[in-house]
């Protein structure tokens, strides 16, 4: 259970906005222009990697991705192909109704971020820092510069919990998806959010227990930041023990967006056993976040636990209409990257990135032309 009332100490800056106070400046006004160029029709360039991402037999390898034009990098870990049981058994304590029936899922190989996406990575896109710091043209500029970016926030969205080494939070699923699109255009490698099945498979890392480390809640503090030990804040990534496949903070710290809409009956209704299946959203709410967070109780950190997004995640947003980019009341939600070994066709890729409801599309298109 997420305790939204625990964050009431963050309400004052946005309350001042609602009362007519000047918004908190968060970036250079010169960087707030929201008119965008058109993207070239041909595919963009692929940036070279400093180390191979596959071995001589075509097997996946750990690699470091540098964001072109910056010194910022992050690490992708290989997730092997396999089969696992998704959901929780009826014997698991504190399980949710949407975790049944447990069912076998086939997983193709992919890479996943060792850590959650950090503010350093996210701000480069969010505030157009890649453009502001550009000293010379990069071959990917025409493609990356055409990707939509968030409008300026009313307050710093870290809510004084920290920037350096910390996970980015408060973004909508659309914002997270647009980041993955921008990163794809920058690097030429296809990045996206994980499907819900891919996320659980990676979290479990070959285990069938409630947590990737076993069943004992007493061991949770060694692996996760959650309500009992987090001191009402997130923490820099990678400070706790990783799961068996080397992924950090899969339990706790910040919950993580996946691609799927939340449906409590989906496991029973779906006729696909592929991890690349997606319960594509048709409404703005609810969508799924996984892993639990610094503000969660232990049961929400279980490998099978599913958390649904809510309208209440935007209560403090002073804008009308509400921002398509920010969840002002979800400082417990971030995301992690996935790169499939076999990317979708060019015609299919946009579904993983773009807005999926008409009202959000309308707002996004207006912003791309420099309006609200």
List key phrases describing it.
372 residues, alpha+beta, paralog of FGE (formylglycine-generating enzyme), 4-stranded antiparallel β-sheet, 4-stranded mixed β-sheet, 19% helix
Q: CATH topology, what is it called? A: paralog of FGE (formylglycine-generating enzyme)
Low-confidence stretches are 1-32
Order of helices and strands: HEEEEEHHHHHHEHEEEEHH
Highest-level CATH class: Alpha Beta
> Quick one: CATH superfamily?
paralog of FGE (formylglycine-generating enzyme)
CATH architecture: Alpha-Beta Complex
As laid out across the biggest beta sheet, the strand order is 1-2-5-10
Indicate the mean pLDDT: 92
Structural features, described:
The strands form three sheets. Strands 1-2-5-10 form a four-stranded antiparallel β-sheet, with no helix packed on it. Strands 8-7-6-9 form a four-stranded mixed β-sheet, with helices on one face. The protein has a two-stranded antiparallel sheet with strand order 3-4. It has a single domain (64-368), classed as paralog of FGE (formylglycine-generating enzyme), CATH 3.90.1580.10. Strand 1 (63-66) and strand 2 (73-79) form a beta hairpin. The protein is α+β, with helices and mostly antiparallel strands and 372 residues long. The protein has ten helices and ten strands. 19% of the residues lie in helices and 12% in strands. The protein is globular and about 55 Å long.
């Amino acid at each position: 259970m997420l305790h939204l009332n625990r964050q009431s100490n963050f309400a004052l800056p946005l309350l001042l906005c609602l009362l007519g106070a000047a918004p908190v400046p968060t970036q250079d006004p010169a960087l707030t222009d929201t008119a965008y160029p058109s993207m070239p029709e041909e595919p963009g360039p692929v940036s070279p990697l400093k180390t191979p991402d596959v071995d001589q037999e075509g097997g996946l390898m750990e690699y470091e991705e540098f964001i072109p034009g910056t010194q910022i990098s992050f690490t992708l870990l290989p997730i092997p192909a396999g089969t696992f049981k998704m959901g929780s058994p009826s014997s698991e304590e504190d399980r949710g109704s949407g975790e049944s029936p447990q069912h076998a899922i086939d997983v193709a190989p992919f890479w996943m971020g060792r850590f959650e996406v950090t503010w350093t990575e996210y701000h480069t896109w969010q505030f157009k820092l890649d453009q502001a710091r550009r000293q010379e043209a990069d071959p990917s500029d025409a493609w990356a510069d055409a990707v939509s970016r968030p409008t300026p926030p009313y307050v710093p969205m870290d809510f004084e919990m920290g920037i350096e080494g910390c996970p980015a939070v408060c973004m909508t699923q659309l914002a997270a998806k647009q980041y993955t699109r921008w990163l794809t255009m920058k690097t030429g490698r296809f990045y996206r959010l994980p499907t819900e099945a891919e996320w659980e498979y990676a979290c479990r890392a070959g285990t069938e227990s409630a947590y990737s480390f076993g069943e004992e809640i007493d061991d949770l503090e060694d692996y996760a930041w959650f309500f009992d030990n987090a001191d009402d804040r997130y923490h820099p990534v990678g400070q706790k023990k990783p799961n068996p496949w080397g992924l950090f903070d899969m339990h706790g710290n910040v919950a993580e967006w996946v691609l799927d809409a939340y449906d409590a009956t989906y496991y029973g209704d779906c006729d696909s056993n592929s991890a690349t299946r997606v319960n594509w959203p048709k409404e703005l709410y609810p969508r799924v976040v996984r892993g639990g967070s610094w503000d969660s109780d232990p049961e929400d950190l279980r490998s099978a636990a599913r958390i649904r997004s809510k309208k209440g995640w935007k209560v403090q947003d002073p804008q009308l209409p509400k921002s398509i980019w920010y969840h002002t009341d979800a400082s417990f939600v971030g995301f992690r990257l996935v790169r499939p070994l076999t990317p979708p066709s060019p015609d299919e890729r946009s579904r993983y990135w773009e807005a999926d409801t008409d009202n959000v599309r309308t707002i996004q298109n207006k912003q791309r032309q420099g309006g609200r």
